[in-house]
UniProtKB/TrEMBL annotation:
Pfam families: LRR_5. This is Leucine-rich repeat domain-containing protein. InterPro entries: LRR_5, LRR_dom_sf, Surface_bspA-like.
Length: 171
């Protein structure tokens, strides 16, 4: 399956609905889509861009966890989510929800509005990530699978021990 057109009227993409659809390159998510389940597009490694429609009110953990994703866009009329430079945030940009794995860059400056970095999983290969003092919580798998040379912050951060920083690949 290379392309999926979800018809208007469908309101939910279930948990792991497209899990391991490795050849999926394009998915059309209709305006009617309200819920995108956990791991919905997990391991869809050829999928490069996702657009979240205006009516989406919930996105499950690791919904876009794949190695090919370059950008997550959000309809500007969505009252719950936003994107900046292809990176997924909640609407008021206090939580960084997903950083596409193919959004490689030498550094990333987390916006100062962010207070939490969620369990993003497979964050891109970023040379350095600068975490502002506003961030007080980092999710378990925030940097799992990414290559990060340096993490810099000015504040003590509450991070669950799990895999938050333990599984960062060394360079």
């Amino acid at each position: 399956m290379i392309s999926v057109h979800i018809p208007e009227g469908v309101t939910t993409i279930g948990e792991a609905a497209f899990h391991f659809c490795e050849n999926l390159e394009y998915v059309n998510i209709p305006k009617s889509m309200m819920h995108i389940g956990r791991n919905a597009f997990d391991k869809c490694n050829r999928l490069q861009t996702i657009t979240i429609p205006s009516d989406t009110i919930s996105i499950g953990e690791a919904a876009f966890c794949n190695k090919g994703l370059q950008s997550i866009e959000v309809d500007e009329n969505n009252p719950y989510y936003s994107s900046e430079d292809g990176i997924l945030f909640n609407k008021d940009k206090t939580t960084l929800l997903a950083y596409p794995s193919q959004r490689k860059r030498p550094f990333y400056l987390v916006p100062s509005s962010v207070t939490e970095i969620a369990d993003c999983d497979r964050m891109a290969d970023i040379g350095q990530i600068f975490i502002p003092a506003s961030v007080t919580k980092i999710g378990d798998d925030a940097f799992l699978g990414g290559i990060v040379m340096s993490i810099q912050t000015t504040l003590r951060i509450q991070a669950r021990m799990g895999t938050c920083l333990i599984k960062i690949k060394p360079i």
